Amino acid sequence: MTAIVESNEAPFITEAINDGNGRITQYLVITIALILNMLDGFDVTSMAFTVHSIGEDLSIAPDKLGIVFSTALAGMVIGAMFIAPISDRIGRRSMVLGSILAIGLSMLATAFVESLWQLIILRLITGLGVGGMLASLATISAEYTPERYRSFAVVTVTAGYPLGATLGGFVAAPLMAEYGWQSVFVAGGIATLAMTVAVYLLIPESLQFIVVRRPPNALRKVNRILQRLNSPALAALPEIDSGESPPNANVFSLLTNEWRSKTIILWLTFFFCFITLYFLLSWIPKLVVNAGMSVSDGVYASMVLNGGAVIGILSLGWLAEHFGLSRIIAVFLFASGVIMSVFAITNGIDYLLIYLFAIGYLLQGGFVGLYAAAAKLYPAEIRTTGVGWGIGLGRLGAVAGPYFGGVLIAQGVSLESNFIIFSIPMVISGIIAMRLTVK
To answer: What is the largest CA-CA distance in the chain?
Structure first.
């Protein structure tokens, strides 16, 4: 079996992706990946929208609900670290299809839970699916985008996550009012499962994956995709030096001398970001209710946070093209920690929505920039592994954030004090991100 040794794209792939003849296929890949990320955002934050109602209906205390949040995020850690890298062996498209089925079915089943343990198991499965899919979506989006727009495309696709969480609030509030919290999970499960058809019919496998890994009938598969991209067919796949084979895609390939320092910086930045981000995503509705506002106000506060995130993510894509991705990530992350501290110190509850919009803009803007940085940092043969492990190890912070947030809330810690505590990881992540360099 022949293989491509070079970590860069084969020349024919670069030409096919960059020449613009296959825009329709490229737009389809980006659009479907964006929609899937939107559904992921809705699926994951559905617990935040429904947590108050579930807690009352099933008589579950806040600290126990914190375990539910952390279990889902633990599933995302496992999925990103150990399931997502499998796509470097079986393909991005196959991984996305399997993940959609796991997410959709577990979401539907969540509507019928009757105990804490059932809820924990199903949210774990949902987390495994989301963790397995996110890295593949970022990777395949990057691989079907012309080089000059790659950062912007990955950032735009990843913006689907907070966008889905924001729009999900508009869906969740009336659904819960009319049909109960169960309807939120039914809607999310059905919408997610429906996307299997779109992925199966419209998303091609990654050209770089096929060329590097050489699955059966590789040449025929490559030419079929090249036809969709309106590019000339190949008579044969590129030859390489004999005796070479593609490197194994595993965590050790990320820790070689060439990649070790960049990998560790990426992991640490993800980790500290995840602590605060998932504390906010999980507990903002509950904290708002505890501050004396209504359940609907809590849902809308979460929507404002994620609405700011969408604007921040999209503007980061433009800013990154003009000022450099690494620099903008560091500034956004550090500034988000400062804004959280200012809110807490000035007791800015009267301006809560303005602060939440600003925090969402900066925190999630910088956070999603890390996805783009990870997708650009590694070569094709270890790209999904690199993105997956960055997200996965980072999500250890996402497990810790909601859990300790639940403990603090159960002890009666105020909204302002929580913001002081969870601003610290953002300041640290901004400082670490200053060392992150991406071409």
So the answer is: 70
